[in-house]
């Protein structure tokens, strides 16, 4: 299984955060897109989404299989 890495451009650090977002122009309100972020990029990515009003939630990302 390959490790989950940060979604920031050029970053290959392991992700420790999930940024859950939704673009109301593209997605139904209950839909969640997920970006993964390392500690360094959590703030830059969440600022990016927050500035557009897309950011819904930031939760810790547990490595390994996630129970559904
Ligand atoms: Zn990163």
List keywords for this structure.
binds zinc ion, 3 strands, alpha+beta, 3-stranded antiparallel β-sheet, 1 helix, 68 residues, 15% helix, single chain
How many β-strand runs?
Answer: 3
Bound molecules: zinc ion
- SSE pattern: EEHE
What is the terminal-to-terminal distance? 18 Å
Basic shape: globular
Enumerate the strands of the largest sheet in spatial order, edge to edge or round the barrel: 2-1-3
For the sheet with most strands, the description reads:
3 strands, antiparallel
Could you walk me through the main structural features you see in this protein, from its secondary elements to its overall organization?
With 68 residues, this protein is an alpha+beta fold. The chain has a domain at 35-68. The protein is built from one helix and three strands, in the order ββαβ. It has one helix at 42-51, and strands at residues 17-21, 33-37, 55-60. A three-stranded antiparallel β-sheet has the order 2-1-3, covered by helices on one side. The two termini are 18 Å apart. Bound molecules: zinc ion. This is Acetone carboxylase.
Quick overview of this protein structure:
15% of the residues lie in helices and 24% in strands. It is of the alpha+beta class.
